[in-house]
Amino acid sequence: MEGIRGIGSAAGGRGGDPQPVGSEVVVSVSHCGLCHSDLTLWKGIFDMGDRQVSIDSIGMKHPLTLGHEILGTVTAAGPEVTDVKVGDVRLVYPWLGCGECESCRSGRENLCMQGRPLGMRRPGGFGSHVVVPHSRYLIDAGDLDPALAATYACSGLTAYSAIKKAMPVRPDEAIVVVGAGGLGLSGIVILKALGHQNIVVVDVSEEKLKIATDAGAHKTVLSIGDDVTKKIVDAVGRPVGTIIDFVNNSQTAAFSFPALARGGRIIMVGMFGGQLTIPTMRMAQGASALSAASPARCRNCVTWWSLAKSGKLDAIPYEAVPKSSINDAMTRLSKGAVKGRIVLQEEPA
Ligand SMILES: [Zn+2]
Ligand SMILES: [Zn+2]
pTM for the whole thing? Predict the structure, then answer.
């Protein structure tokens, strides 16, 4: 893999900071979380299960300015902007749609087929600044720790979206959370804040399961060996009603599906790639359901942000590192050696 290119200004360079027009807002990035999607885009290949798809074939190409968990300070605003001003600290909602299609018009920009998310199809938060097309994508994070708040733009919002999809589940009924990385830990603290009392976490790492327990998991399952399905069912005490798969690769899907109770469902969230072969008879007999959750639509932000600011949400473990150590951070993430989330921080001038 090549190193990250394009660190510096997302648009314009320090010698010529971007000038906003119309409704645009320029944000100087102070914090940007590191997501597994950044790793996928860095490698440039999507694992679609039966084939590998390069980012070039979907109209993206390196160099990209990655980073979509962005928090920073407004440094300039176009003449049409009235609700934020220079100096305001804002979190950036990165899942920008085209604004024209049916999904966008119904407030589901994250489902837009022509979407241009920041840090993917537009320059993102690994640069010094981002240009945000409209102030409606800016969120006041209040008194929240800025590094932690940055992670709420993707991992927090995505985990919340998945849990909203899984609900209602009785507080004492088991919810199995697969994966204890940044997303899974976000899921655990959100479930805990919502009063859930039976969280069973599955991961390949003993160390990450310990972190999951510290975060609020009630039981854990080490997903190594051939009997992971049985270990999950044993931990729950019966076949499982609700599984949220924050990894969602061939292995996790393969051990999760047979663990389902009749009428059970899996919410597929992670984008680690792979595929699942399902006996159609088993699906019909089991009245099973497979569903998916992508980063939440913006209108979910209201309930999400009221929860985030309520003080009920515990912090997930995170490590703040200077932006200059991005390559080391990406390498550690690719090796699975990150506890919680890495958040890149602006270095003092
Ligand atoms: Zn992400
Ligand atoms: Zn659209």
Answer: 0.90
